[in-house]
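Data availability excerpt. The first of two example chains:
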Amino acid sequence: MNTQKISFDYSAPKTLLIKLSGDWRISAGFPEAGQVVGQFDLHKEVTRLEFEASRLEKWDSGFMSFLFHLSRECEHRSIFFNRRGLPDGVRKLLDIALKVADAETVLPRPSESLLERIGGKAIEVTGGIRFLLDFLGEIAVGFWRMLRGKSYFRRDEFFYILQACSVGALPLVSLISILVGVILAFIGAIQLQLFGAQIFIADIVGIAMVRVMGAVMAGILMAGRTGASFAAELGIMQVNEEIDALKTLGISPVEFLVIPRLLALVVMMPLLTLYADFMGILGGFVVSAGVLGLNPTEYWNHTQSAVKISNLWVGLIHGFVFGIIIAVAGCLRGIGCGRSAAAVGEATTSAVVEAVTWIVIATAIITFICQVLGV
C-alpha cells in the first residue's frame, strides 16, 4: 500500500493540482481539509482546484466529508472546484451532497411593510371566517340529513363518545365543582359574618352554581378535556389522510365524524351542568354545616327557596350552548389541521383557547339577555 496520502502540484498557472493516493478511509486516518486551505493562504493566486486520483485505493464517507468541506471553502474563496479527476462514484455522491445542502439553505425572509402585514392578517382572518361559515353550513346540512334519516355515522362510535363525555368526565367535574362551592361559601362568609347573616351563604352558593358557575366550570373542563381530544383525534386522521379517504369513498367527514361528537356534547353538557350544580351546592353545604356551624336543615331549606326554576333553566341553556361551542371548536380545528405532528399540537391548543374564549363571551351574552328579559 502506498502510504503517501496527498501532495500538491503547482505546475499549471493559477492551478492547484491535488494528487491523492493510498487508503482514504476513516479507520486509516487521513489529512484534514485545513491542510489544503493552508495552501490557499500560501498561494493566493490560485483560482482553480483539480484532482488526480489514479492511485487512490479505498475511500469511505470520511473522504466524502473531506471533499465536501473543500468544495465549500472553494466556493467561499471563488476558486473553481473541478471534480473531473475524482472517481465516478465520488463525483456522483458529491453532487448529491451539494444539491441537498443547497436545498436546505434557508433564504432570508424579505422584510414586510406595515401595510403588507395588515393585509396578510386581514386575508388570514377572512379565510378563517369563510372556513368557519362553510363548516357550520356543512353541520347544518348534516343535521338536516340526519333528521331525514339519510346521514351516515356509526352508532357504536356515538355511544363510545357519549360515554367518554359523561362517565369519564365525572371525577374531574366532581372535584372542581365541590372546590368551587367551597370557595364561594368561604367568600360569602367573609362578608356575611359582618352582618350576622351567614345563612344567606346558601343563597349565594345555590344561585351562583345553578345559574352560571356550574355550567361555566363544566364547560371549561370539557373544553380542555374533550374539545382538545376531538381536535387531536381528527387532526391525526387528517395527517394520516383518513379524512381524504372518507371523501374518496363519498362519505362526508362532517356527517361521519363531527355530527356524533356534536350530538354527544349537546346531550351531555346539560346533564354535566346539573351534576356540577349539585356538587357545588354540596361543597358549600359541607363548609357551611361543618366549618361555619350553620344548621344543615335550615341551610337546605334556604337553598330550595332561593334557587328558582328559572335559574335552573338559565344554567341548562348555558350548558347546551357550551356543548355546541366545545364540539364546533374542537372539530373545526381538527378538520382544518395541517399535515404534520406540529400542526396537530397547534390545532389542539387552538381548540382549547377558542372554546374557552367563546364560553366566556357566550356567558356574557346570555347574562345580558337574561338581565334585559328580567329572568
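And the second chain:
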Amino acid sequence: MKKIEEVANLNNKRVLLRLDLNVPLKGSEIIDSTRIDKILPTLRFLIQKDCRIIIISHIGRPEGKIDKKLSMLPVCKYLSQKLNEEVELIEKQIFDLEPNIIFKNSKNRILFLENIRFYEQEEKNNEGFAKLLSGFGDVYINDAFSCSHRAHASIDKITKFIPSYCGIQMHNEVNALKKVTSDIKRPITCIIGGSKISTKINLIKNLIPKFENLVIVGGMANNILKYKGFNIGNSINEKNCDEIVSQIFSLSEENNCNLVFPSDVAVGKKLEDKAKIKNLSNLQDDDIILDIGPETVNSINYLLQNSKTVLWNGPAGYFENPNFSIGSKKIAKKIVELGNDIFSVAGGGDTIAVLNKVNAFEKFNFVSTAGGAFLEYLEGKEIPGIRALN
C-alpha cells in the first residue's frame, strides 16, 4: 500500500478521507472517543499540508435509511474541539451536491459528509456510487482499517476511480499485525480469551503454525478443561465442541506449538461473588469458573518473560467483577513491565477495557480498535480495503 506521506504534493488538494468514527453515543454524547483520538495524527498531517479535507464515515447500522439519531454531528463537534478547527457537517444529500464547488460554498477547510450508511449503495459496494464519491476528491485516503474487512463502496470500489493511499493509523495497524503474523520476532506467545471457542477456531488454526506458545483462557478454556475430563461445574461452555478442541490439540502437536490452559481457577457460585481459588480437581457442581488462578498467571508470565512478541485478544476472566479481573490485570502488568524486551499487540473491545483499567493502553506497542478486521486479518482472510489499496 502506498502511504499518505508518499503523495508528491498535497497543497490545496481535495482529500477524500475515509475514517471509522463509529463511536458509542448516549443521545448526542460520545461515550468513548478512542477511535476518534487514534486518527488525529492523520488529520493534523493533512492540515499541516494545507489540504481541503472531506471526511467520510458512519455511526451504527442505519441500513440505507436516514436516521437522525445516527448523525455525524456529535463527531464533528468533538473534532472541532480537538483540532481547534471548524468542522462543518454537510447535511445535503450527496446526490444533490456539486463535487467541484463543494468548498466554494464554505469558508471551512474540513467538511464532513453525513453518515455514509444512510445510502444503501454504500454497503452494496455500488460502482456508480463509488464513482460519484470519488468526484469529491483529488486524492483518496483510507484510514479506516477497522472497516476495511467490508467490501463497501467508500472502501473498495472507490479506489478504481481516484489515486488512493493508506493513512497513518491504517499503516501502523497493518505494520503491527505483520509483526505478529509474518515479520515475527521469536519466540512469540499468543493469549486468546473470550467466551466462545467456535468463534475463534479459524484464528487459532491460522496462528498455531506460526507461534511457539498458545495460551487459551476465559470462557473458551472451559471447553478444553471439560474435554480433558475435569468437572467445570456451572461454568459457561459450548455444546458439541469436542471435535474443535481435538483439532486444536492435534494441530499444536503437529506444529510444535506449546498449548497452555488453566491449571488452577478462581470460582464463585454466582457472578457477583468474591473469588475462591481452586485446583481443577476440587471443583463442585455449583461452581462457576470466572478467572484464572495464581499458578496459571505465573505460568503465563514465565512464557512472556521468555518471549520477544505477544499477541493478546480476549480477557482471562469475568473482568466486569473486579474480583475476577485479577488474572487479566496481572498479565497486562507483566507485559508493561517487560517494556522494550517484548513487542506487544492487543486487540478486541474487552481487552482494551482491561488495558484502560490498569492504565496500560499507551504502554503497549500497538492496541487495535478494529474488532472484526483485526480478527479476520489474523485468521488469514483477505481484507477488501487492503486489496483495493494494493
